[in-house]
Amino acid sequence: MLSFLRSRIFFFIAVLVLPLVSVWKSLAAWESAFVFDWPVPTALLLLLIISLLVSKKRQKDYLPQAWVLWLLLVLAAASDCACNLYAFVAPWQLPTSIFLMMGCTCLLWVLLRWGSLLLWAPFLFLQVAQQVSFSHYGTRLNSLVLAETMEASAEELLTYLTPFNMTMAILAFIGTVLFFYLMVRVLRCANSKWSLLNAGLLFSLLGVLCGIVLPPHKQKTEYFWPAREGYDLFMACSEALLHNQATIEQAENLPLPTQESSSISTLKGKEGVVLVLHIGESVRADRMSLNGYEKDTTPWLRQQPNLINFPNCISSACDTCQAQIAILTNARRDIWNKQPEMQPTTGSVLELFNAHGFKVYSFFGQRSGQKLKYDRVVRVLTKCSEDRFNAPGSPWTSLPQIAGVVDANRSENLVLFINNEGSHTPFHHYDKKNAPFLPSATDFQNPAAHAQEVNNAYDNTVHYTDEFIRRVVQSLHGRPFVYVYISDHGEYLGHDGIWGRAALGESKYNYHSTTGCRVGMFVISSPEFEAKHPHFAAAMQQLRVNSVRTVAHEHIFHSLLGLFGISTPHYDSRLDICSDKMQPYNGPMPETEN
Ligand SMILES: [Zn+2]
Questions:
Q1: What domain range includes position 562?
Q2: pTM
Q3: Total domain count, the chain
Q4: What is the CA(280)–ligand 1 centre distance, in A?
Q5: 168 CA → ligand 1 middle, Å
């Protein structure tokens, strides 16, 4: 009796009960005739038969010892429960992932021996990160999240180093070490390599069979864990790297708009005109009191009589770099959708201003020292700058720099390009001592549980930007200036079920179906600007008329040219908000407002 309990026959009798019930239940749930998806199981079966024949010829055991099988099962079940996001979402799915885990463990060991640890270590660690990421931030580790993570500033990453996340990281580390220790001990004791190969193929086959008998409406490729997950993670990482590299290359390879002949009809040079182009960071339109938000986040802007507000402005992408490209070049919307007419054909609009007598100065936040994608793209797009300033600490530290440039260039025509941290996660940049909305704190350990504090922190950053803009405008007092503000993308504070700005690569979170793509945009000008040239007054008037229409990033390049009367073959009056020929944005956007 005892020897029967120790036998492989007992192992298979005991272990196959659950999958058999699973298969039977799955087949019963098919509403149409069962379709056998044959290529993968057939290939596995053929390999198994060959491997068994070779084992027989070499007089090797067909399978590892029973105790090895039992330990493999325990190891696979434990790692499945701890690491697999889908372990319990579908009750009859567990045998699929446990068998596949057993199969992959054996096969990788046979193929790579110790080298397999190099694959398991990052995989298991990322799987725990996946669990935390999904439960706390509502996102999976897709290519977009990975691309954003690769681009995150040290400050942003530190926000995620919460005691909970650190504890999870330590537990993941201990778990991985324990997994390795047991795995190596078990597999090294197996009677032969051939027996492990047979076991690997057999368990993989059983896993695949359990998965493919599920009725079509319950089938998900993610259930084939860890095989499918490993493949997805690999693809997501390479996609993230390629995506970041492609964005940089796209910006770097654009021909300058100054290669074509262009002219300016309004200014001769040295009139002291100032254009401020401020690309905001992560500002949702619906979080500005300017647009009716109940908390007074934009008290100063709200009271400016000469402010032209655009309540319906759609951002092109949830990625800062892509948004910058769409704003500064003639790119249109979703520049990755491969439609030729949406792609940029020329470089930064700032080059044209520079060519027509404007001195360009750029003011960045502290991020711009990263030497990463953001830094490289924004540097290409602001290449014509006389000087670039980084603001360490808070964005307000750039105020004396701006005032200094304005004072030193009283008679020059200037472009001041501003792009600082604004309301970027982790919503740190506001006056903590005089914060208007309390209690406020950025708790990314569990933002949903601290919704009020996180929302207040975000609102404080918008309020802080309002004061920043007031101070910039103050330093331009007496100058003919026009201040164009547009945010790069929105942010999620529980909106659309998302916290932070991630998960947007998932189909159900398509960026333009969420409220996060509606961003803040407005234009302020001084009376001196409109008085400077009849064209300016007419253009501002048309801008006022068109402000009720839906606009987007794609309008900025052409509107800046139209506003200043710059002619170039790249100009399109249909995308110029200062023109009576302007056509509103008709691209993807959320259907209803939340
Ligand atoms: Zn951004």
A1: 272-575
A2: 0.70
A3: 2
A4: 8
A5: 28
